[in-house]
Amino acid sequence: MIDYSNTSNLGNVITILKFSGNETPGAINDFNLNILNGSKVGAIDQVSEEEVLFSEQDNSYMFLISAIPKDTGRYVITIGDAANVYRKNDQCTKANFAINFSQTDQHFYLLNKWRPDLTLDNNGRRHVYFLKSIE
Hints:
Blueprint: E1 11-18, E2 31-37, E3 39-42, E4 49-53, E5 55-57, E6 60-62, E7 64-69, E8 73-79, E9 82-87, E10 90-97, H1 108-114, H2 122-125, E11 128-133
Antiparallel strand pairs: 1-4, 1-8, 2-7, 3-4, 5-6, 8-11, 9-10
């Protein structure tokens, strides 16, 4: 067991893309993103991404977000892994954290319906969630 309390950069990049024909433009602004536990820190690609940090509470890291669509559409939400995480008192020792969707229906049938030409490997399957927003 390694103590990774008091980190500076444990978080994630959340990406939202919209399925529009064979295109998947960035769609982060198609959603109201409310960080309920954690914090936003901005993103390099502000059309597709939101970078977030997890909050540390009682020797655990917590993150809770609500993503409310502003309009109808077909979307994929992806989450990344946390790479090169370091503690505030030790910036040399770094760790990577795998962050995956689990115990939820990720609606892979939607990808097969919308883009049957695309396939996901096992790693990709752990990082995506497909949804259709309807009125």
